[in-house]
Amino acid sequence: MSDSLAPEDEPLDAETLLDFAERIEGLPPETAAWVGPLFQECLRARLREAELVADTATPSADAPVPGRHQNQDSDCDAELAQVALDVAEWLKTLWDVGYMGAGSFPAAPRSAFPRIELDDVFQSALFARIRQGKRPLPFPPPTRHGRPWHALIEDERFTGSVAAEPVHDADGRLLGVQIEADNGWQFVDTGATSDASTTIVQHRGRGPLFRLELSSTTSRLTRLPAQHHQPIRLRERGGIRSFSLEWSLSGAKPIAVPLRAATWERAESEAAHWIATQHPALYGRVAFLRADDTTP
Question: Is 28 helix (H, G, I), strand (E, B) or coil?
Answer without folding.
Answer: coil
